[in-house]
Write a structure and sequence with these properties.
Layout lengths: L1 H24 L6 E9 L9 E6 L7 H12 L5 E4 L9 H11 L8 E3 L10 H4 L5 E3 L3 E6 L2 E5 L9 H5 L7 E5 L5 H4 L7 E4 L31 E4 L5 E4 L16 E9 L1
Helix pairs in contact: 2-3
């Protein structure tokens, strides 16, 4: 009886391991292009149907993979491309330069805007990104269109400041806040913003059927699985969308499929 139980347990463990291995070698290597329709009473009626691409955590993607992503994004008719940081891998600048070169090829109506991530601290993005035609947002913001204000904050080093990033927004503007680390939305006042886009957590990167257990260590986020991926809320109840990102750091993704996100904005 005990042997049967032991065999059954071993078979279940083996099956679970095999499922995760197969997922890691197949779907977890294929970028998902997630389409989201976002409704807001504050979104300008004249911008109904506006298309926003959101890409983050590229790290060290091969050039061929990057080009496939650029081709796909160019087929999505984007009005704007937003970059959520971590363009580099450790201290290797060539990964970041290759990534920015590729991303600068995405065709948009209103341009490309990005913030820095925790792995970008060693590089002067304020000097580098404009050379690729990308607007760098570091605790700053600007009016993209009438009624649409975009602010971006730096990662925790240097210190992010939501108030500085959004101070030029006009009353009645739809204010979008771009950040790398979603924890910022729990530590600073986000009242007055309508939507927050963040990255950083990779969906847990190594998960158990999607459960991002690794995030409970506290080294990546201080809020467990709250910001693993998808929709969450800031401390002020502002909607936060956290992308799983499209690259990986040092280990493969397991049940944490890479993704680029495309928002279609609708006036409610």
């Amino acid at each position: 009886m005990r042997r049967k139980i032991l065999r059954s347990v071993c078979a279940v463990v083996f099956a679970i391991g095999l499922i995760h291995m197969v997922h890691m070698l197949t779907l977890d290597r294929i970028v998902q292009y997630k389409e989201i329709v976002f409704y807001s009473e504050n979104w300008p009626q004249e911008l109904d149907g506006y298309r926003m691409g959101f890409v983050a955590d590229t790290h060290r993607l091969p050039e061929d993979d990057l080009q496939e992503i650029i081709t796909e994004l160019n087929d999505r008719n984007l009005d704007i491309l937003l970059l959520g940081g971590d363009y580099s891998f450790r201290t290797r600048k060539h990964y970041m330069m290759a990534t920015l070169t590729a991303l600068s090829q995405v065709e948009t109506t209103d341009g490309i805007f990005g913030v820095g991530g925790n792995h970008d601290r060693r590089f002067p993005l304020a000097e580098i990104m404009p050379k690729f035609g990308i607007t760098f947002l570091q605790n700053t913001g600007l009016q993209v269109r009438d009624g649409f204000f975009l602010g971006g904050v730096s990662d925790f080093n240097p210190w992010p400041c939501v108030a500085s990033a959004t101070e030029d927004a006009q009353s009645g503007d739809f204010t979008l806040l771009l950040m790398h680390n979603p924890d910022i939305s729990m530590e600073q006042d986000t009242v007055g913003t309508d939507l927050i886009l963040a990255a950083h957590t990779h969906g847990g990167q190594i998960t158990f059927f999607g459960w991002a257990f690794y995030l409970h260590r506290g080294s990546i986020t201080h809020h467990g699985t709250r910001f693993a991926y998808g929709w969450a809320r800031s401390q002020d109840d502002v909607p936060v969308y956290v992308t799983r990102g499209i690259g990986r750091y040092s280990v493969p993704r397991v049940f944490a499929r890479p993704q680029a996100v495309i928002f279609t904005m609708r006036a409610k």
